[in-house]
Amino acid sequence: MKRLHFILILVCSLCLNACNTKKQEVKDNGLITTENLYFGQKPPGLIPEIFAPEIIGNISNISFSPELDEVYFSTDKIDGKLAIYFSKLKANKWTPIKRANFTKGGKNEELYPFVSHTNKRIYFTALDSIFSDEKIWYVNRLEDSWSDPIQLDSPINEDLVFYINQSKNGDLFYTSIAKGKMYYAPNKNGEFPEVQEVEIEFGHHGFISPSQEYLLVYNRVKENVNNIYVCFKKKDETWTKPINLGNEVNSNFGAALPSITPDGKYLFFNRSNGKDEYLYWVSTEVIHRLKPDGL
Question: Buried-most residue among 18, 24, 156, 163 (CB within 10 A)?
Fold first, then answer.
C-alpha cells in the first residue's frame, strides 16, 4: 500500500511538473514575457526615468490591461487633437500605435482612458468643449473589438468630471472639475448609484491603488508647478494627510497625472518643464517607504 501511495504521488508530481513546463512554454512563446513588457523598456528603480520616449513620445497619461499586454494613453501630440491611442502585444511584438476613436467621431475629444481590472471595460472622458460637457463614458470588450460607447448611467455624470479610475473591488474614483475635489462611487453589483466626497485635506486628479491602500493626488505648489502626494488609508477607513512624494518624483518641474500599473509595481506620472513634457515611471517603493508606522 505504501509503495502504491508513493507511485501515485510520483505520477501526480510528474504531471504537475509537465503542466507547469507547458504553461511556462506558452508564456515564453506567447504574449507575456519579462523582456517584451512595457515596450521592452528596462523597469526603473527608485529614480524616475522617461518611459519609451522614442516609441510613444509626449503623452499625458497611460493605462495598462491587467495582463500588461495592452496599453492605452491620451495625447494631442500625434495629430494635434486630444485623443486616445493604443498598442497591443501580439506574437512578442507591440502593434503599431493607432487611434482608438471609441466614440467614432461622436465627441470632439477623448482622453484619460482606464482599463478595468476585469479587463472587460475601458472608462474614459469624452467632451465637445472644454469645461462645459466633460462626462464619463465606457466601452465593453467584445471578442476582438470594443462595443459602441456608453455614457455612464450614474450621479457621477451629473457634474463635470474626468480622470476616472477604479480599484479591484470596482469602486470608481474621479475628479469633479467644478469643485476641484476627489469623489468616489462605491460599486453596487456593477452599478454606481451614489457618489461620496473623498475626505482628504487637498488634491485632485487622483488615482486609487488597486487594493485601495493609498490614493495619489496632485496639487499646485506654485505657478505652473504641481506636486504629487499620497494619502494612505487608515484602519478606520479615513485617510492620512497628503504626504509629498519628494524631490525625486516632483523635482523642480513638478509632476502630475499619476497612475499605478495593475500589478501595483510602478508609478507613472507626467512631468513638464514648461517646454517639453514626458511620461515618467518609477518603482512604487517610493510610495511604500512613506507609509506611516502602524498602518
Answer: 163
pLDDT in tens, 55-94: 887 888 999 999 999 999 999 888 778 899 999 999 999 9
Hey, what amino acid is at 162?
A: F
Q: Of 56-65, 103-112, 132-141, 281-290, which range is least confident?
A: 56-65
261: cell is 500599473
How far is residue 281's CA from residue 36's CA, in Å, rounded to a whole number?
A: 17
Contact 125, 134 (CB under 8 A): yes
Amino acid 33: pLDDT: 60
| CA nearest to 268, candidates 11, 28, 61 | 61
Distances (CA, A) of 193 to 16, 62, 121, 196: 46, 27, 18, 11
Q: Strands 266-272, 277-283: parallel, antiparallel or unpaired by DSSP?
A: antiparallel
Mean pLDDT of 14-18: 40
Written as nine digits, the cell of 244 is 509629498
**In the chain, % of residues over pLDDT 70:** 88
Contact 236, 220 (CB under 8 A): no
CA nearest to 136, candidates 121, 117, 120, 119? 121
Q: In terms of C-beta density within 10 A (0-12 exposed, 13-18 middle, 19 or more buried), how is residue 53 classed?
A: middle
CB neighbour class for 290 (10 Å; exposed up to 12, middle 13-18, buried from 19): middle
Grid cell for residue 260: 499605478
- For residue 168 the three cell numbers come to 479591484
Closest alpha carbon to 249 in 232, 265, 230: 230
**C-beta of residue 160 within 8 angstroms of C-beta of residue 151:** no
**Quick one: average pLDDT of 20-28?**
38
Helix (H/G/I), strand (E/B), else coil: 35? helix
